[in-house]
Structure formats: structure tokens, C-alpha cells
């Protein structure tokens, strides 16, 4: 859980750093999900 909190805080900090329109928590969740899905596809493709 600490690792997820750290990931969440880091992602929120990076995404909203000097951002005129900060991302909402829901948008950050969607971005993280999208990146996880892309990561899964890349890893799957590397093994085949």
C-alpha cells in the first residue's frame, strides 16, 4: 500500500507540476490505468 501511495503521489506531482489546469484524482487514476495497460502489452509483445 505504501508503494501505491508513493506511486500515486509521484504521478500526481509529475502530472500537475506547473500545470495550469491540474488533473483530477479520477483523471490521474485513468492515466495510471492506461500506462499499466500499455506496459502489459509491451511486456506481452516482448515475450512473443
Q: Which segments are poorly predicted (pLDDT under 50) over 5 or more consecutive residues?
A: none
Secondary-structure content class: mainly alpha
Sketch the major β-sheet: none
First-to-last CA distance: 32 Å
- Number of discrete helical segments: 2
Q: Please give the share of residues in helix.
A: over 70%
Shape: elongated
Strand fraction: under 5%
Order of helices and strands: HH
Rg is 13 Å
How would you state the average pLDDT, rounded?
89
What is the total tally of β strands? 0
Verbal overview:
The protein is mostly helical. It has two helices and no strands. Helix 1 crosses helix 2. The termini are far apart. About 0% of the residues are buried. The mean pLDDT is about 90.
Question: Which helices and strands occur, and which strands form pairs?
Answer:
Layout: H1 2-16, H2 25-47
Helix pairs in contact: 1-2
What brief labels describe this structure?
2 helices, 48 residues, mainly alpha, single chain, elongated
Task: Tell me briefly what this model is.
79% of the residues lie in helices and 0% in strands. It is built from two helices and no strands.
Amino acid at each position: 500500500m505504501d508503494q501505491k501511495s508513493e506511486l500515486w503521489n509521484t504521478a500526481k506531482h509529475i502530472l500537475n507540476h506547473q500545470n495550469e489546469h491540474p488533473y483530477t484524482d479520477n483523471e490521474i487514476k485513468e492515466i495510471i490505468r492506461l500506462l499499466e495497460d500499455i506496459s502489459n502489452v509491451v511486456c506481452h509483445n516482448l515475450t512473443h
